Amino acid sequence: MSDESEPTGATTDTGESATVASPSGVDALRARLPETRAEAEALLDRLVRENRFTIAVLFPLVGAVSLVGSAEGWVPDPLAFNPWFVLFGVLVMRSPLVVGVLPTIDRRAVGWLGVLIAYTYAIEAFGVATGWPYGSFEYTVSLGPMVGGVPAALPVFFIPLVMNAYLLCVLLLGPRASNGWLRLLTVIPAVVAMDVVLDPGAVALGFWSFGGGAFYGVPLSNYAGWVLSAAVAVVTLDRAFDLSGLRERLADCEFMLDDMVSFVILWGGINLWYGNLLPVAVAGAFGLGLVRSDRFDAALFNPLS
């Protein structure tokens, strides 16, 4: 009777048995990893695209409830305003923007983004120390490790805000976006408007305090400071990125502005809870801009799509 079971080894011409090793788990995992930048970008695109609802809708909804709950005393320590939970949530919501922009990043972009990161730390540290240009303020909730009185993760909060405004304006301007002065004069108000939504909500939560101010606890000088920082950011982004490449990526990548969708949901919801009606209206205006640019689509709000 013949044995038809699978052989566990092979016989060499010398009569010795040689075992054929099966690939290890590490080897199998390595084989599944992307080998080129294009493959890595395609993998990240797929991950974000398949999880749009979770990233851009569910995360900001949970974030708004947990932040308001922390401020109102509903969430117990150590979960209340836990800086690592906050940072994790922010990074997840930022992922569509990062993945969307990634194919347009080259050495020039890395260099200019480094300049913008350095400016971010420098102007914030100067502002904390002197009260200029944003007005006197202090952080009253931990946002993670601090460096010279400034959150180490500050670029994660600042740069995506200005990048989102920049991309939305490029998208809405269409062919007119090629005019550098028009870009500058459009993006600056958009960035300031985003801070009109952000700062009142953050002050209401107790993230930071200006010690009072005319606009929902925020001094008007803060917005003059944002005009300066927005201008620096626009000029830097203009030098960092090829505009035609950004526009092509915006046309092909439907989730590239999902971080702004998260912004509208998160900070619009927080301001609504605290009765900050003008910031809510501005958040709604950004929502309309996203609708006009076809970024509030059915796939985003249907978790089963």
UniProtKB/TrEMBL annotation:
Mention any Pfam family matching this sequence.
Caroten_synth
Q: Does the keyword Transmembrane apply?
A: yes
Q: Which PANTHER family match?
A: SLL0814 PROTEIN
Task: Spell out the InterPro entries in the cross-references.
Answer: BABR_hydratase, CruF, CruF-like
Domain of life of the organism encoding this protein? Archaea
Keyword annotations for this protein, in alphabetical order, are: Membrane, Transmembrane, Transmembrane helix
Q: What is this protein called?
A: Carotene biosynthesis associated membrane protein
Task: Spell out the residue ranges making up region: Disordered.
Answer: 1-21
Q: Where is the composition biased (Polar residues)?
A: 8-21
Query: Where would you find the membrane-spanning parts of this chain?
Result: 53-71, 83-102, 109-132, 152-173, 185-211, 223-241, 261-286
